[in-house]
Write a structure and sequence with these properties.
Helices cover 77% and strands 0% of the residues. The protein is mainly alpha-helical. The two termini are 25 Å apart.
Length: 477
Amino acid sequence: MDRYLHSNAVVYASLILGFKMMTSIFSFYYVKIFLDHYHVSQAWFDVAQVIYLFWNAINDPLFAYWQDNSKLEIFRSRRLNVLYGAPLFALSFLLAWFPWGDYASHPWLAGVHLLVALSCYDAMFTFIGLASCALFAEISDKHEDRLRLTRYTQVASIFGSSSVFFSQVLCDGLNNMASFQMFVVVIALISCWAMYYTGTHVRTMYDNDVLDAVDIESPSIPFKGNDSSGKKKLDSSSLSSFTQFKQIAQQKNFIIFVTINFMQIFQSIYMSNFLSIFGDELLPQHVMSPFYRKFLYGSAFIIPQILVLCLSPVVGRKGYYCVILWSFYFKVFCAVVVFMAGRHQYMLLSLFMLIEASLPNTIFAFFNLPVSDIIDADQERHKRRLPLSSSVFAYNALFTKPAQSLAPMMIVAILDRNHYQEKVSGDMTTIQHQELSSAMFTVACAIPFVIGLLQILVWRPYSIRDSHITIAKHVES
């Protein structure tokens, strides 16, 4: 049995490996390639981001309800979701890296390219991501098995996130487009194979139940069983999606969590998309060697996984509530220190940028724990036979995923008002260069400061603080 669980954990980790390889590359490069190489206009960039904002928000609950209630095995089975979704995810990942035509003659084409690439990528990102979340909870219900899965997935994430580092070392980022395009094709093939391997071999506790469920042609019927107190338990599949949403969204802790999660995602996306843009401007070439710059950009995607492993014992002793709160205080402190030191303290600034690129993603990994507690509280409150894990993840995404569009829209608007387009075209004056650098430095310090203060105020009333004496039952990838 132990050997079976070990092999199943390896199989699941293969999914995380492939997933992280592509998502790390996409989040780091897609804004830069469309701004600096395809020269998409701000108007088209904003249009694409607004449409992406709405699609990004609604596809999570749509796909979650579809996967939880479909009568077709290909959609109901998490394993088949991954098996058949992997090639489509790889293809959607590749859409962004190959130009569709002459963007100088047809500027609108770059905007359409961005819109299609974002929408297709996010659709498959959501589809595979929800299946990954559900697989984690369904592989085993034993605490020690889930701890093993957690360790394996963190190791897989370290290797997967290193794709950004290797892209810097082997291809010099986007400076050598031909090499970069070959690199992303190889990444897509490896990732597709890794996820396909999971879709072929992973097994869950509910494989037979899924087969039974898809054989039922009539609508789902409420479960007639009772819990230990004699109260009837409800089969949540008999509820409408609006009823499920209302029951979840009215919980105080859920509202608090999605608020701080929205801000955390905003900061994380901002640093992932603009780290290289800000770094190239604020850290001059004569100060930072090319190797150090590549190390800075690449390690920003690896360090969070290492920090998660290091902080896990602290979370076990003190609880996630305290660790998350401390991180908010720390980011405010760092922002104040760097702003007071000034933008010409390059070593301090580079360290600050590395911290701000790593810390949000590190703490975000522990957000699985409050989500887990919210799922358990919802299940107990509404006497559900099975937890609404996929739906809670999806409704959380409904509120938080707009941050993925708002962050680049806001930053690009600020940069364009401070002569970033002149820099891209090569027509920047010395005064404009100073204004752009000053604006970037102010943004780099202001965002963690403001977001950290707001998160402290919002997070303090969160009431589930003692769950570290038990192990969370539901984890989001």
